[in-house]
Amino acid sequence: MLSHTKNFPFFYLYYYSSMAIEDASILMVFILFISFICTFIFYKTKVLCRCKICHAYITSSWSFEFDNLCDWYTHLLQNSPTKTIHIHVLHNTITSNHKNVEYMLKTRFENYPKGKAFSAILGDFLGRGIFNVDGEYWRFQRKMASLELGKMSIKSHAFEVVNYEIDHRLIPLISAFSRKEHGVLDLQDVFRRFSFDVICKFSFGYDPKCLHESLPMSELAIAFDLASQLSAQRAMTTSPLVWKIKRLFNVGSEKRLKESIKMVNKFAQEVIRQRNKLGCCSNHEDLLSRFMDKTKDPIYLRDIVISFLLAGRDTVASSLTGLFWLLAQQPEIVAAIRAEALMVTQHESLTSLEQLHQLHYLQAVVYEGMRLFPPIQFNSKFCQHDDTLPDGTFVKKGTRVTYHSYAMGRMETIWGPDCLVFKPERWLKDGVFYQETPFMYPVFQAGYRMCLGKEMALVELKSVILSLLQRFDIELPHPSRAPRFSPGLTATFRDGLPVRVSERRGQT
Description:
Layout: H1 2-47, H2 52-59, H3 69-78, E1 84-87, E2 92-95, H4 98-107, H5 115-126, H6 135-149, H7 152-178, E3 185-186, H8 187-204, H9 219-234, H10 240-249, H11 252-278, H12 287-292, H13 298-327, H14 331-345, H15 353-357, H16 360-372, E4 378-382, E5 387-388, E6 394-395, E7 400-404, H17 405-408, H18 412-415, E8 428-429, E9 432-433, H19 454-471, E10 472-475, E11 485-486, E12 492-493, E13 498-503
Parallel strand pairs: 2-7
Antiparallel strand pairs: 1-2, 3-13, 4-7, 5-6, 8-9, 10-13, 11-12
Helix pairs in contact: 5-9, 7-8, 7-19, 8-13, 9-11, 10-11, 11-13, 13-16, 13-19, 14-16
């Protein structure tokens, strides 16, 4: 017995060592296979294109001069005579020419769909949701969403949800923080929590309580962020083979993407189950319940849930972050917002959508902020048939064509020599808000894919800005350099938005 006990560890040591050698062999074969594929892709791209732009993209040498990829693209587009460039290794034509944008989104709309390649990149995450489909799927969802979002009852419900979250969570949280000495608050994190609570309550009748004073970490929000980030990274590879092979073997970023999507799906399924459990006898105002009156397909409803989260949470939080980074450095603009609000509300709180619509300067501020920091920096389509853009650029069938909203906001040809200046007055004519054409400003898209949630997003943005500026002074803790962005489907400040907050006298 004693002898058997002594030999016992040696038997397992031999057994596990053999397994380890076998696993190592499999791993070595996998590494060699991946190396072969990567070498093939490298030579397929680099050798066939030796141009300066493609070399800078492949080697990331652009980062020696620019903090963000979007700033490098902007530089290239500003210096292009047509305001259009081509990244050969990505098979991607990128434009900041508003005539090209109108051509893609309106004149030849049918020739520039999302395309199968784009749908494949985001398919695991967004499924067949409205942001990831074309044709009949897209028309059906858009028609159904348009009918619901256009109702006055849903607009009033959105206004109530937003203001409840502001009054009962956002203001108390920031007020409590303002009383801490030398404290620095990450406003981006606060906005992401706020917009997550709002979109969940408005769309599903579910309250995740992310903005509770204890600032709890939401596993769902973390999983959603990761899924968004990793899905976006797929589009940055020089070949879809890279991420498809990783997905096939369930390794690296694709393994983490799969795990995060699994958690998001679990949430979506639970929300749908709860709504089904309530049944038709319930009188719920949330958006999902209204959609469920028209379809019971669980996969389709799952895709709707994910699309609502992406549209209502990330874009609003991103817009607010960029706006407050700008406003914290522009006290005269903050003073003008407060003065207009006093004139409209007569020293009272904002109580109606009608009052909000009278705040033309505030609307101009929001548009100007999103001109410089659009929540979605670029948008891509795929050319179905050989075509020529209005600026003379030939586009071959199958080419990815991208209009770059971030770069468009920095074009002198569109906004004049002061295009880099935060100037709300450029949106006003005789004190009234005015926009010439959405094709020069495709922040909410334009043409047939114009954002259906635009008005509700503006209500949320303006309500938050007004409520915070009426009660608090917000400043950056130190002079801030231009933001650096993290990869993702929406623009996110890599280092957050640290601010100092103090309560205004007489506004407690």
